[in-house]
Specification:
This protein is an alpha/beta fold. It contains eight helices and seven strands. Helix 3 links the parallel strand 2 and strand 3.
Length: 198
């Protein structure tokens, strides 16, 4: 898994409440056998018109100024609905490495950490302020420093955020669940020898 240390990137706004995993990646696209290729279908029903090919000009994220964004700014309860891990796969494949919102659905929140995405819960008033700033400044960027647990705005002001220490360690080191387990490989091997396993 790719490590997450410091990220500086364009912020894309998605002003929607209770965005569920079926809106993030609709069920008809869950047929790929690898974790890649889902980005093209991210927010499919919103990004495209009825023909499924033409970009929807009314979907804010489609604006040229937000292309190449790596930070998603959104609203409460992001990632609710089913537990499909394809949702963070689609977000990651599209290019997002960090999501800022007032709150996240629990399973989605955990799945983000398992897929090298940093979900950050911020107070609603801070999120609202960021929406205003993002729209007021084309090319608006933030710098997210996981080690320092800070978000730095263009003018230099910082926002502190909380993150679980174990989750922080896994992202900083690029450990997925397998990598985290393999850190104990010697202990596991010793246990297996002692109990005649393997």
């Amino acid at each position: 898994m790719e490590a997450f240390n410091t990220l500086t990137g364009i912020v894309a706004p998605l002003e929607a409440l209770n965005v569920d995993t079926d809106q993030i990646i609709p069920k008809q696209f869950l047929k790929l056998i690898e974790r890649t290729g889902y980005g093209q279908f991210l927010f499919y029903d919103w990004r495209y018109l009825a023909d499924g090919k033409t970009a929807n000009p009314d979907f804010e994220m489609n604006a040229p100024r937000y292309q190449g964004a790596t930070i998603l700014l959104t609203k409460d309860n992001f990632g609710c609905g089913s537990s499909r891990e394809h949702a963070p796969w689609a977000l990651s494949d599209y290019g997002f490495r960090c999501i800022l919102a007032p709150s996240f659905a629990d399973i989605f929140f955990n799945n983000c950490f398992n897929n090298a995405i940093l979900p950050i819960a911020l107070p609603e008033e801070i999120v609202e302020g960021l929406f205003t700033e993002v729209r007021a400044t084309e090319g608006y960027q933030l710098t997210v420093d996981l080690a320092a647990q800070t978000i730095t705005k263009p003018g230099g002001a910082t926002i502190a955020f909380e993150v679980n220490p174990l989750r922080k360690e896994t992202l900083l080191n690029g450990w997925d669940q397998v990598g985290l387990t393999l850190r104990r490989e010697d202990s596991i091997a010793a246990y297996e020898r002692a109990h005649g396993i393997g």
